[in-house]
Amino acid sequence: MLSATNLQLKALSLVRCRNMKNRKLIFAVALCLFYSVTMLSAKTKTTASKIPKDLVRQLIKDINHNKNNIRLSGDELQVLHKNLKYELHDLNADEVPEFFLYIDHSDWCGAGRNCSYWVYRKTNHGYKLLLEDKVLRVRNRATNGYKDIASEVPMGFCARNVQRADVSLYKYNGKRYQIVSSKYQCIPFTPKQ
After folding, report:
1. Average pLDDT, rounded, for the chain
2. How far apart are CA 177 and CA 193, in angstroms?
3. For a tag site, which of 9, 67, 105, 151 has the least CB within 10 Å?
4. Rounded to 10 degrees, what is the CA torsion of 143, 145, 147, 150?
């Protein structure tokens, strides 16, 4: 039979053991969180550096070339360089993905995350702009060897988790993407991470 003192010592050692397990668990969780944040931070920092410099120069040239003769200011160029992101999509099944560039910043996207996208294809003479519009999504169907692209600009909600969007469908005509239809549609709401 155990005495009261022995029971107290046993209980104390169990509490210490549980505390030790909790500490180890807390340490393991903290270590995982630290690693995740570090890797996410590293990935975010290297994202823009993976975009070829000549492509960034072409993007700036294309943005500055507009009918109103408006040029990017020094501050806008800093925002562009700091927040330039990309997606890669192989539009023509040649195993060379096209760049979908966008500037992930409220000045460029607005409150509705209506970011402008610029789609570029690598050529022997540099990068060719295929399409510029907002919130571009690649479709499965292809026309003239290139996947169709839709611009899905959010315009409110049709119902809970169903977004109302101005959807413009673009098809490749052999030389460039051309709009073939534009209409309001109700589409599933998928928040951007």
Report:
1. 79
2. 28
3. 67
4. -40
